[in-house]
Amino acid sequence: MAGMADRTTAVVWDRALLDYDMGDHPLNPVRVELTMALARELGVLSRPGVEMITPRPADEADLTRIHRPDYLDAVRLAPSDPFFRGWGLNTEDNPVFDGMHEASARICGASIAAAEAVWHGTATRAVNVSGGLHHAMASRAAGFCVYNDPAVAIARLLDQGAQRVAYVDVDVHHGDGVQAAFYDDPRVLTISLHETPLALFPGTGFADETGGRDAAGTAVNVPLPPGTSDAAWLRAFHAVVPSVLRAFGPEIIFSQCGADAHRLDPLADLSLSVDGQRAAYIAMRALADELCDGRWVAMGGGGYALVEVVPRAWTHLLAVATGAPLDPSVAVPPAWRTFAAERCPRSVVPTVMTDGTEPVVEAWQPGTTPDAVDKAILATRMAVFPLHGLDPHDPRD
């Protein structure tokens, strides 16, 4: 790696990233458009040290590090065949659309650009809010995801010599595609906090999924009960994530920051606020600062409250990545409110960057909070901590 830049941040952006558009579908690219517009209105993108990067699409060599060549052929072919079936394509979750391969490859290219900017030291941190398509498998589209940009970007760094890459996924859904891609690779630690697979797609991400034979402990899953709110979610995060990251010793941290754990999200049942999500971003940045000289690559992900939640959450993410976190009480600019109302006429447009909560970080103590979240924490610690030489019952670990 080259020498680190002085706290600079690469923000990867091109309006062509909005071409990943499945039509009348929950994953509407307007959420990304509104995020970038809100960040721009609040001055986040014009802060000192912010470099805007225009990405190129990932090429065949990049994509086939994760995806099978015949799957790429299917992605190219599917939009021209109205009767196409197979590979997880042309389904309700993953409808085909014109230019699907090119749009998907461009999102992968954006995450590669973010990863390389940090790995080669031209930036300390990088953000691609259009990315985070973590469900795509080697030969199957799934969960609104055609190509798996986090996995493709991580694979690029492995090819360039990375030996310890950590991936932290706070989307409400399990980061199954990234876990599957590296389940047998001891160089990649995948951590996912998500709603229990007993209640939500994709049905994986149990605590006992801990990595393959030669990579034991490198998959970490914290499945949380429906209704988990800020304080309990943050308790779970801090009871698991810092200890495992410290034991692993990453050279770089990737974060998938899906905003769908919010209480207003229509597709899931966790109960975080924007303020709780902001606290998670601050915690991940702090861990990157502590463990790997600040090297942090953040991506978007899920999030289907298109106006009410996602733009505010990811604008907070961009602010945390580019410098000082935004004051939660700051007003949403009137110009953005007008723009959002025009783009999504039936939505409730927020007026402030907060949900009016002050998230409390509760310290985990074994046996003192015998609720469903505490049981989930202990199950994860029991499954994974011994594999890292940690004591699952010691709150200091």
Automatic annotation (TrEMBL):
Where does the record place the Histone deacetylase domain?
Answer: 25-319
Would the keyword Repressor be found if you checked this record's keyword annotation? no
Quote any Pfam family the record assigns: Hist_deacetyl
Please name the GO terms of the biological process aspect recorded for this protein, alphabetically: acetoin catabolic process; epigenetic regulation of gene expression
Give the domain of life.
Bacteria
Q: Which UniProt keywords apply?
A: Acetoin catabolism
Which pathway does this polypeptide act in?
Answer: Ketone degradation; acetoin degradation
GO terms for molecular function, please? histone deacetylase activity
- State the Gene3D superfamilies in the record: Histone deacetylase domain (3.40.800.20)
- What protein family does this chain belong to? Belongs to the histone deacetylase family.
Q: Which PANTHER family match?
A: HISTONE DEACETYLASE HDAC1, HISTONE DEACETYLASE HDAC1-RELATED
Q: What is this protein called?
A: Acetoin utilization protein AcuC
Gene it is expressed from: acuC
